[in-house]
Structure formats: structure tokens, C-alpha cells
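S., here's the first fold you wanted:
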Amino acid sequence: MQNQIRVLLVDDEDRFCETTSKFLNKKGFDTAIANNAEKALQILKDKKRDVIVLDIKMTGMDGHTALHEIKKTDPDIQVIILTGHGSRYSAMRALVREAFDYLAKPCDVEILASRIQDAYLAKNRGFKFDDKKALDIMIPINNLKSIPADMTLKDAIAVNKGFLAVIDERKMFAGILTHMDIIRAIRPEYISEDGSFNEESSRFSPMFWSGFFSDRVKAISQKKVWEILPESTPVISENANLLEAAHMMARTFGDVLLVKDISKVIGIIRNQDIYSEISSLMNK
């Protein structure tokens, strides 16, 4: 590495710091260690650092407070949150306070080294990263047509909207009803109970399926919306980048992601929203 990137590891786990610093030094980084946030702040006063890798839960000052103090000292310094005590809540708090990234232990040290380089490039060479986040392309929940959870599927379909916000009896958000949920619901329970159209079901004869579609549509028409809602829908942070959103959607074979802030669902991302971003970038 021609110009050494100066890294400060801030973590009270001595073994982790020793192992990680040795690896980073072999990669060409100039790595210093602080076993608490107070020591890290003192080091930063004495010697400038390019990137800080900061644990959240430490003895004394915690990582969230330390991040705030570090940014007060040097607003442009890049901070990567790396902790085994993290949660989505912790991640979002950190990102709101302008951490460059959030990685959870155990983290592949190669990935850590790569993100340290990215953080350095972002600060010093004007390296451009994807600016858009989930928040930027989502459809706000308040913009969706809402229906009660006890509405029949027949009435829900009559609303004629692609994605419907479902509200329970407590007036709380209960989920998203999609076209695919209704398509899945028409399958007979004994075929769809494992959640997939498998080889066993494909062995039924064409005669078996004949006329069955209309029968199944009639059979589910009076079902309540809550009866066919998925048990869970993938959730992503409002601060997640679009590659993470695309990965989650592909991994879960879904057509919608819920976008959440610290405490609640605030919107959705549909597969066509991600596709639209792909198309837009390809045509630039």
C-alpha cells in the first residue's frame, strides 16, 4: 500500500485487537490500538488517524457516545462500527450519527480491510459510493391504500391496488397484502403446506387440474385477509444501500421489503422499484 492508511482499533477485547491489528499491518495498514474510548480520544488528539474501527459496548464510555465525541473532534474522520453486541437498533443509531459502515462480529477480516480502504477513499479521493438508500426509493406506508385485516379477499381484490397496507383491529400495521399472496392462497392446502410447488404436486394429471382453478378462487373469496398474510416479510433498514436491498429480495424470493426506521415500518420497496434503479443506471 503506497500511502499507509492510519487505522485506530477501539475495542476492549485485547485478543481481538491483537489478532486484527496483526492482520491489518500485514495488509499494509498503520494500525494503532485503544482498549477504551477515552484512550482513543486522547490518541486522536496526539496523532491524526484516517479510519477508526469502533466497538459499541465497552467499559466506560460506550461506542455511541464515543462516535459523537470523535465526530466533534474531527467531523470528517471515517468510523466503522464493529461489534458483537449490535442490533438493527444500534446500527441505525450509529448510521444516523454518520458512521461510515456497520459490521457485526464475527466479521471476515478481509471484508473489514476492504471497508477500511473504501472509507479512506471516500474521504480522501472523492470516491463515489451509491448515494441512494432504501429511504430514497421506498413508497411511504402512508401513500399505500389501507384495508382492515378482517376484510374478505373478494373485497380486497375489488380495491384493485397492487400492494395494500393491512391494519388490524388495534389500528396497527399488520403487514402488506400483495398479488402473490393471493396467488399462493388459491393452491390447495395439501399441495402448498410446505410452501412450494414440488415434484409430487406436478405428477397430478391434467384432468385433475381441469376446472380446479375457478373452484379454488371461489373457495378463498370469503377468506379474511389476515388468514393469508405471510407470517413474516423481510425487513430492511431505511439506511440500507440498494445492493443490500437487492440481495435481500433475491435471497427471500419475495416481491416486497418492509422499510423500517428505529421503531416502526415506514415504507415498502417493491421489486419493480429496484428494477427501475437498475434500468436508470444502465441507461445513463
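And the second, which I think is the more interesting of the pair:
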Amino acid sequence: MSKIKFQALFSHSVMAVLFAIFAYGCANVSPESVSFSQSKKQLKQAYKQHNFHTEFYCGVEFDIDTLKILESNSRHIESNSTAEVSLSDFNGFQAKGEGSLLNANDRALSAESAKITKETTQGYTPRKPLTSKGKANVRAKRIEFEHIMPAHRFGGQLECWQNGGRKACVNDENFRKIEAEKRNLVPAIGEINADRSNFAYAESKDVPQGQYGKCNAYTDFKNKRFYPRDEVKGIIARIYLYMAKQYKITLTQEEQSLMESWDKAHPPTEYEMRLLQTQGF
């Protein structure tokens, strides 16, 4: 995308349209009658079509064919190494002002031939590089499709869920429609997708750093809260507000207040506009 085109897209009128679409929903837009599995396949094809390969929570680059985190941007560290490793200052995707896009490849760390005990990728370090059985944590190396508003949240108000949880909603047409909503799906590192689970999003000035290396995300397992990096808070907010409007999901006062705050504080970025393209908008 050229700088001129990018700046044009970020005119006040376009920004206003983006805010309106996400914050208030679009009554004339309805997702196709597809399954969650089909939506994931369509999104993968869209990533190829639009050359979209930047992960959501940490901003790491991934292979659009395999949905694997790019090994060429990794540094492997030996457990017995005493050498001090200097990592890039790259904290994931950042858009700094109009027309400026930080390219992860410009900050890539070269791969090294070493015994892998901990892997850092563009600022992301797996919380658990190994499983309890001592094997490599494959979810830390792959991209998965994350529901921004988790299934537990949008399904919890449905009768099928109340009668038996997610399994009981497998054949519920309404649940399947919401589950397959592409605007609620983003590419996320598998480990973080698993850690976040169905935890609510939250914000704090005193969020611990380093849980995932230099990726500015944090999972509070004790209080069941997930703290995303600033760069995606606005996107999360507009998706939540859209989902609430489109599917008549009643947000709690805490959710409504947080999402409205993030919506105002974090306007659309080029990353969000590219994400919209892959989602069909």
C-alpha cells in the first residue's frame, strides 16, 4: 500500500465510517451460512489473497501457507549458554502515525544452530516452550484462529449452552452462525490463544512484563483476565461492540465501559484496515 493511498484511507471521513461500522454494527451485513471450520478456511485463503501475515497479540510474522511462525525470524538459545543475548527492541506490530508501518522483517533476528530450550520470535518468547512431557510446545509455533469474544461469552446466553455447554450447541443454528462470524476471528499464537481461554479483557497501569518475552500481553490466570497490547485494544473494542449489536449480546457494565474507552482511545490503524479486508469488509 503506497503512502499516499494509506494517508487517503486515513482521512477523517473514512475514520468515522470505521468507527460507525464497528461501534454500532451494520444491520445490513450478515455472515454467510458457513461453519466455524469453513470460516477458518476462508480466512486462510483471504490471508493469501491480501498477503496478510501479521499475528494479532504479539505482531509476529507467520507463513500464510502453513500458518507457522516464521523460523527465519527466530533466535534459539542454548540452556547452557552464558553469553548475554541482546534482543531486538521490536515489540510486535506498531503503527506510528499516518503512513508509518514497522516492518518486522527489518527487525528480524537471525536463526542459530543450537539446542532449542527457549525460542524468541520477534519479541515473543513462549511461556512454556516445552510440554509437561518434555516435548516442544507445538502451539507456541503455530497460528490459530482466536475468537475475540470467546464462545463462552456469546454462547453463554443461549439455551443450548445453559443446558449442556458448548457441546450442546454444536447443532444450534444460532450458535453456529455466531461461532463462524469472521469479524470475530483473528490470527493468534496458539499458546496465547490457549492461555487466554475465555478470560475477559482487562486494563491496568501495573501489568507485569515478560510473561511472553517482549510481547506486551499478559495472562492473569488467578483472576482470569487477559491484558492485550495497546496496538490491538481498539480493534478488540470495535469487534466486541459489533458483536453485541449484531447478535443482541448484552455486555456487562464493565465490558461496555472498557470497550467504549478503548474504542475512543485507540483509533483504526493500517493493520486494522488490512484485517478488515481479510474478513470481507
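Why I say that: The radius of gyration is 19 Å. The chain has one domain: 3-278.

Talk tomorrow,
H.
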